[in-house]
Amino acid sequence: MYFHYQRSYRGPVRAVILDWAGTTVDFGSLAPVAAFVQLFADQGVTLSVAEARGPMGMEKRAHIRQLCEAPAIAARWRERHGAEPDADDVDRLYEAFVPLQIAVIREYAQLIPGCRETITGLRERGIRIGANTGYSRAMMEPLIQAAATQGYLPDSTVCATEVPRGRPYPHMSLKNAIELEVEALQSCVKVDDTVPGIEEGLNAGMWTVGVAVSGNEVGLALADWQALPRVEQQRYRERAYQRLLGGGAHYVVDTIADLPRCLDAIEGRLARGERP
Known about the structure:
alpha/beta
């Protein structure tokens, strides 16, 4: 008689892999939106904030391609330029996008409230800190420097342009895990404010935590969020939670400040032999 042995990891969380904009910096994930809207405006094509946010989380060239393929945006482009955008237009737009994004990133580099304290607490628990992003390395350099001056410097940062495929593929999180020397992927937690980011973590075999209020799904600056009546805040919050839970997140929190309680719950599940 043969018995199937199912291996399970029962130790603590060993690594947390964090998104950047909307998760650790840039409350509301405003920098990418500002750059995309300006990019298309420079081409004489209007792009709404909601449209700009649609493919958020993806590598930025892929994001631009998705925008160009959206029927409403393609129709506006055709009206302005006489034909729908093609691959050459995507390449040209991406080249113009890079300096726009770098300039805007510097304006939105503030840490999200509670980020530094949360990172300190994770390190005290022996948890390694990774980060990944749809930004390229050129876009990331000023942001990494700005975050470091505020007390946040991950042990590993991976950009979408440094792996074969960006989100929702698992490549970035897997590269983070390699650089962090993680023994078991079940001991990793991916934290992200977009559905593609949640899918990335799931595809990598990790636990996932969605970030609702500070991220792309609500999409408001901190002051604008705080100015909302509580009833309106709750409406935004519920919609964001539903979106991220619907994308497969194991847990959803308002901001990174709420992450530690999720890690406690995950460690309890790991101790019982559960897997992501």
